[in-house]
Design goal:
Layout lengths: L6 H13 L6 E4 L4 H14 L3 E5 L19 H15 L5 E8 L5 H5 L4 H18 L3 E4 L14 H22 L5 E4 L11 H17 L7 E3 L6 E2 L2 E2 L5 H13 L3 E4 L7 H10 L3 E4 L1 H21 L8 H12 L15 H5 L2 H11 L7 H16 L4 H19 L5 H8 L2
Parallel strand pairs: 1-2, 1-10, 2-3, 3-4, 4-5, 5-6, 6-9, 9-10
Antiparallel strand pairs: 7-8
Helix pairs in contact: 1-16, 2-3, 2-15, 5-6, 7-8, 10-13, 10-15, 11-13, 11-14
Length: about 425
């Protein structure tokens, strides 16, 4: 796996092809598991599109900050494991490693413990530097979490100040250490809640550009804007707004950057198909793919329950449910009164347990008891003459492929490399 062009060159080539009338939207894929990495790499090889992997700090992070829930990855192991899978399947196309929602208090524990500002900023910076040293291509600078801000909304002036500070420090370290060129993404879908006012959005980009230019720092490759998407439970409950998305996209292009949309999970094909038409540059999807993997595993459990005697079964359904509920990550996605319900209350509600298992099962795949049950399940399904890994990976590939097809990404990796020459 050896990128022929940088992510910045790739986006420049994207603009060139757009000007020639070839419209497509890139997708950032959350690396929720090893199966998902393999599925994404296989699909990128088959369909010839640039694979953009977006890892949050909860998913992948430095060991000294707790590592990540995805295979216990730190940045180096994430890159190395992905490269090893690429070698295994013969993938030599475009694959970019990106930090999603990096920044202070972006790990659940840091926010819950209300780390002091200086400490949270220092940890964020050190995590970014570990990203850069590991060979990441793009860093999302997102200082919009702050447990000391009322109602959870960080003033845009503070967001701007912290964004510039972090980019400046990262660039100083990059130059000093001889690390490769980095691209940046700024902003968040949560800056102001709801739809971001286009004028406020533009003023933020304009002020950011002015400060970055004065300091000789690079303009971000993407700015995140709120287009009305909102992921909750297992659906997109937001109100996608085409005129707003179009307007925000036009604003970013005016300042030489691109619009990135977050929370794109579960959107309808009808909405996805408009993205290339209105010039939306990229969109992130993650929880949906985790849910697809979990549901594929539960489908295999159903097969196991039908054909394997009780004493030899994995009991994965019950084990996965217990770990998913007790992990409490479902609180981020839950709505209504259940969001604040106790674990004991949830465990008594069969429907809630079923929903949480599908929604949050992927968070538990590295738990020892879950891994042991998975090993038994895989052995039982294999003994039945089926290939459990093939089944799970195919289900994930189909889910990702829906976006690749709707976004017009087939064949774009080769086209982008040619356009960048």
């Amino acid at each position: 796996m050896n990128n022929k062009i940088t992510i910045t060159q790739m986006m420049s080539a994207t603009n060139t092809l757009h000007q020639q009338g070839k419209h497509f939207t890139h997708i950032g894929v959350g690396p929720m598991s090893r199966n998902l990495l393999k599925a994404a790499l296989e699909l990128a090889k088959e369909k010839d599109f640039p694979l953009i992997l977006i890892a949050s700090r909860n998913q992948v992070d430095s060991d000294r900050f707790g590592g990540g829930y995805v295979c216990g990855f730190d940045q180096k192991r994430f890159v190395e494991t992905t490269a090893a899978i690429a070698d295994e399947i013969g993938f030599d196309g475009l694959c970019y490693f990106c930090r999603d929602h990096g920044g202070p208090w972006q790990r659940d524990a840091e926010r819950n413990n209300k780390l002091p500002v200086d400490e949270a900023m220092d940890i964020a910076l050190q995590s970014y530097l570990d990203d850069a040293e590991a060979g990441f291509d793009l860093l999302h600078i997102d200082p919009t979490k702050d447990p000391f801000c009322g109602e959870g909304v960080v003033p845009l002036s503070t967001v701007l100040e912290r964004t510039v500070y972090l980019i400046e420090k990262i660039e100083e370290a990059r130059a000093k250490n001889g690390w490769k060129e980095l691209a940046y993404e700024v902003g968040t879908e949560e800056t102001l809640g709801g739809l971001i006012d286009p004028q406020i959005f533009e003023n933020f980009i304009k002020k950011l550009k002015d400060v970055l230019e004065k300091k000789g720092l690079p303009m971000p490759l993407f700015v995140v804007g709120q287009t009305g998407t909102l992921t909750r439970l297992t659906s997109n409950v937001g109100q996608y707004d085409t005129p707003t998305a179009t307007n925000l996209s036009n604003i970013t292009h005016k300042y030489g950057t691109g619009l990135k949309e977050h929370n794109g999970d579960y959107l309808s094909n009808t909405i996805l198909l408009e993205h290339p038409v209105i010039g939306l540059d990229a969109m992130n999807v993650a929880p949906e793919f985790g849910l697809v993997e979990t549901e594929a595993l539960l489908e295999l459990v159903t097969t196991e329950e039908k054909f394997v005697e009780a004493g030899r079964r994995s009991n994965l359904r019950a084990i996965l449910a217990e770990h998913a509920v007790k992990g409490e990550r479902w609180r981020k996605w839950m709505v209504g009164e259940k969001r604040s319900a106790s674990v004991e209350e949830i465990m008594k509600d069969a429907d809630a347990v079923k929903l949480i298992t599908s929604m949050c099962g992927h968070y538990t795949l590295e738990d020892a008891e879950v891994k042991a049950a998975l090993a038994i399940l895989n052995a039982n399904i294999t003994a039945l003459g089926l290939d459990p890994e093939f089944y799970v990976i195919k289900k994930i590939k189909d889910s990702i492929d829906r976006y690749i097809y709707c976004f017009g990404l087939y064949g774009t990796a080769t086209a982008l490399c040619n356009a960048a020459k």
